[in-house]
Specification:
The protein has helices at 141-146, 270-276, and strands at residues 20-24, 27-31, 37-41, 46-52, 55-56, 78-79, 107-117, 124-135, 151-159, 163-172, 178-184, 187-189, 196-199, 205-208, 214-217, 222-224, 229-233, 242-246, 252-259, 263-268, 289-303, 308-317. A hairpin with a 4-residue loop joins β3 and β4 (46-52). By secondary structure, the chain is mainly beta. The protein has one domain (19-317): Beta-galactosidase, Chain A, domain 5, CATH 2.70.98.10. The radius of gyration is 19 Å and the shape is globular. The longest helix is centred in the last third of the chain and has 7 residues, at 270-276. The structure holds 6-O-phosphono-beta-D-glucopyranose (BG6). Residues 84, 97-98, 185, 209, 230, 265, 267, 293 line the site of 6-O-phosphono-beta-D-glucopyranose.
Length: 319
């Protein structure tokens, strides 16, 4: 646990309200004194709730499985070490779609708090960081056999007064190189898909999974979702935000910046696919969600023995 910025640095005698933490039924929940909260299920280290201003920012299906029998349909599942159906003749070939991170039991490593400059210049805001770990020895026998590499993942979920940050560190703790892909499969909660535009994608190349994986160039400065959408936008500048805005007044609802994650998947199952997924409900809920998924998925990352890689996203809401 990083204790370098622990709250006692504020000064002896200062007793500012501190973030609160609870762990119940495999869910770790933290709240800031300013009211924001986050909940992370140990199954998949899936963020299942992020509230700001009393409002839920993430979509979770009403029929999502929360008992560890299936990846959680909603929130922020972590996709690792493969994205989508694994290719044939690859080290990941025997893994399920999207790998094993979202359907493994992670360990809670601890919480740390620190101060960040507040929105007002004379104010200091607290942030709380929750760390989760997953390693080779924690996998089921089936996953260990399917992907026999010695790895360590540390996933950090940081709640601030105006953002949620998720960062993943991947370590190769074995003797052999391995290849991986990674993605933060974020389900954002929205009031109405017809009022949403996704900005920051214009002129970018994307692979359209609804059109046999063909490549296209995005022509729209503000993408409207009007049908099943499953696109992998590639080679984006991680520092340039992807903004989900309201079409009515162009107000940003979410803004997502990334680090070391140069791809962004935009996914909405639309009417038929939503009906076809037993854990997606109610059927019309496709109108209330959009997945904007920060990842590194268009090419494999190679991690050499003893090396580490890190990437992450920062989501700001209702700016
Ligand atoms: C997206 C993929 O990331 O996840 C889609 O691009 C996929 O192709 C979607 O349908 C949901 O996947 P799953 O395995 O959670 O149903």
């Amino acid at each position: 646990m990083d204790r370098s910025n622990k709250p006692s640095a504020i000064g002896v005698g200062a007793s500012l309200p501190q973030p609160t933490l609870s762990i119940k039924d495999n869910v770790v929940e933290a709240s800031l004194p300013t009211g924001q909260s986050v909940a992370v299920h140990l199954y998949g280290a899936t963020v299942t709730s992020w509230k700001t201003g009393g409002q839920e920012q993430l979509f979770v299906s009403e029929t999502a499985h929360l008992d560890g029998s299936k990846p959680i349909r909603g929130g922020i599942p972590v996709v690792f070490p493969v994205f989508g159906p694994p290719p044939q003749n690859h080290a990941t070939s025997s893994l399920p779609q999207h790998g094993f991170a979202r359907n493994s039991n992670w360990e809670f490593l601890g919480k740390s708090s620190s101060e960040a400059p507040g929105r007002d210049s004379d104010q200091t805001d607290l942030t709380v960081k929750l760390d989760f770990g997953l390693s080779h020895s924690m996998l089921t026998d089936e996953f260990r056999a399917a992907w026999p590499y010695e790895f360590g993942l540390v996933y950090s979920v940081t709640l601030t007064t105006n953002s949620l940050e998720t960062a993943l560190q991947v370590r190769n703790e074995g003797q052999q190189n391995f290849e991986f892909k990674v993605l933060m499969h974020t389900y954002l909660s929205i009031a109405d898909i017809s009022d949403i535009r996704v900005k920051g994608l214009e002129s970018k190349t994307y692979v359209d999974k609804t059109l046999q994986g063909t490549s296209h160039t995005e022509s729209s400065p503000a993408l409207a979702i009007t049908q099943e959408t499953d696109r992998v936008y590639q080679q984006l500048d991680p520092a340039v935000p992807i903004v989900v805005a309201s079409a009515k007044d162009d107000q940003p609802l979410f803004s997502i910046t990334r680090e070391a994650l140069t791809d962004v998947v935009v996914w909405n199952p639309w009417i038929e696919k939503a009906k076809g997924m037993a854990d997606f409900g109610p059927d019309e809920a496709y109108k209330n969600m959009i997945c904007v998924e920060a990842g590194s998925v268009s090419a494999w990352q190679t991690l050499e023995a003893g090396e580490a890689w890190e990437g992450g996203q920062s989501i700001k809401s209702r700016l």
